[in-house]
Amino acid sequence: MEKWIITTKTKPQEEEISKAKNIAKNLNCIYEERREKTLKKISTQNNNSPILIVNKKQGLKAYTPNQKIWFWHPGLSKIRIGSLKNNLPDHLYRSVKPKKGMKILDANLGMAHDALVLASCGANVIGLEKDKFIHLITSEGLKKTNKNKEYPKFIRKAALNIKTKCIDNETYIKNSKDNFDAVCFSPMFVKPQFKSDDMMPLREVALKSWPTENTIKRSLKISRKVVIKVEYEKHPKLPEPTRWSHGQGSRIAYAIYE
Ligand SMILES: C[S@@+](CC[C@H](N)C(=O)[O-])C[C@H]1O[C@@H](n2cnc3c(N)ncnc32)[C@H](O)[C@@H]1O
Question: Which pLDDT tens digit goes with each residue over 35-77?
C-alpha cells in the first residue's frame, strides 16, 4: 500500500468522488472522504502522508508533508520558450539541439518543463517518470494544457508533442527497441536550482536516483547523443563525457556524450 492519501476538494461533485476512488484503487492507496477536514488534519492523522486532491476545475493537486501545495504548471518553460523565440540561448536546448520531427527521450520528466522546451520546436518527446503520483499530476496537467487558453499557444502546442510513461528510466532504456536522436537526464539536484524554486514542492516527493554507468552506455546504444544535467562539481561520479557544456558563472552544467 502506498503512503499517499487520495481525497477531493471540500463539497465535491459525485464525479470528483468517483475519480478519487478510482485513482486510489489504481494506485493502491487509501481514499479518504474529505468532509470538512483540513488537508493538514488528514495528513497528520495519516503519519504526515502526502495527499492527492481531486478538483475537476483546478486539476489534480498535491499537499506535501511540509504543507505545500503542488500542482502542474508550465513554470519557467514559458519564459525559456519565449526567450528561444527571441533568439536568446537556452542551455539545455543548445546542448541537445532538437529539431522538428526528432525523437527525444526525457528520462526524468518531473514537471515536464525541460520536455516542453525540447518539444517547442516540433520534436517528439517521450517523458519517463518513475513516481506514479508525479506522473499522474504532470500527465493530466499536460493533457489539460491544450484546452487552457490562459497558456500561450506555444506551450499548448509543445504539450501536444509530449507522450509520457510511468516507468523507471533504467528499465525502459534497458528494454527499449526504439531509437532516439537524444536521451536527456535531469536527476534531482542536492541543492535547489533557484532560491524561489517553483520545483520546491516537487523536490519533497520526487525520487532521487542517478543514472548508472550501464544506463548511460545503454542509452548511447539507442541514441546518438546523451545529455545529463548536473550540478557542477557536486554531482556523483560520471563516466568522462565527450564534452561539457557549462554557462559562465552557472552552477549547472551539461555532460554531453556522443
Ligand atoms: C529534477 S526532476 C526533473 C525535472 C524535469 N526535467 C522538469 O523540467 O520538470 C527529476 C524527476 O525524475 C524522477 N525520477 C527519479 N528517478 C527516476 C527514475 N529512475 N526513472 C524515472 N524517473 C525518475 C523524479 O521523481 C523527478 O520527478
Answer: 989 999 999 999 999 999 999 999 999 999 888 899 999 999 9
Q: Is 193 in the pocket of ligand 1 (CB under 6 A)?
A: no
Confidence class of residue 192 from pLDDT cuts 50, 70 and 90?
Answer: low
Phi, psi values for residue 182, rounded to 5° = -155, 145
CB of 225 closer than 8 Å to CB of 255: no
Q: Where are the alpha helices (DSSP H) in 150-257?
A: 153-160, 169-175, 200-205, 213-222
**What are the grid coordinates assigned to 256, written together?**
554531453
CB 131 less than 6 A from any atom of ligand 1: yes
Question: Which of 3.40.50.300, 3.30.420.10, 3.40.50.2300, 3.40.50.150 is the CATH number of 77-257?
Answer: 3.40.50.150
| pLDDT score of 232 | 79
CATH architecture of 5-71: 3-Layer(aba) Sandwich (3.40)
- Binding site membership of 188 for ligand 1 (Cβ less than 6 Å): yes
Please give the distance, rounded to the nearest whole angstrom, from the Cα atom of residue 208 to the centre of ligand 1: 8
- Could you count the other beta carbons within 10 Å of the beta carbon of residue 147? 8
Distance from the CA of 242 to the center of ligand 1, in angstroms? 24
